[in-house]
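job 3f2a | input accepted
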Amino acid sequence: MTILSYKDLVVWQKSMDLVVLIYECTDKFPKTEQYGLTSQMRRSAVSIPSNIAEGRKMGTTNEFRHFLIIAFGSGTELETQIEIAKRLSFGKNLDYKKIDALLNEIMRMLNTMIKNMS
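job 3f2a | predicted structure (118 res):
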């Protein structure tokens, strides 16, 4: 399959699905977290497909790799923020299974892509 656009990349498609899951999850957080953990998690999640798209559009392999590394960093931030949410009283009873599985898959995909571009 020929990749014509960043939208053809499975990792971008999956990271877009992750954004939706994060928005749905953080909708259940208390309003007091609107400018705290909710905002942080949403920005980290949105950063993943955004950086994949921006890097793909830049044209060179080195630039694409650089943006994939940034997307990977945003994924690690999101992993940490999810762990924080799990420890807080309002987040303990939420189901993170789909989010954890999808984020794990995306991180593995990004890691493989980055290594293959070295």
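job 3f2a | The mean pLDDT is 95.
job 3f2a | closed
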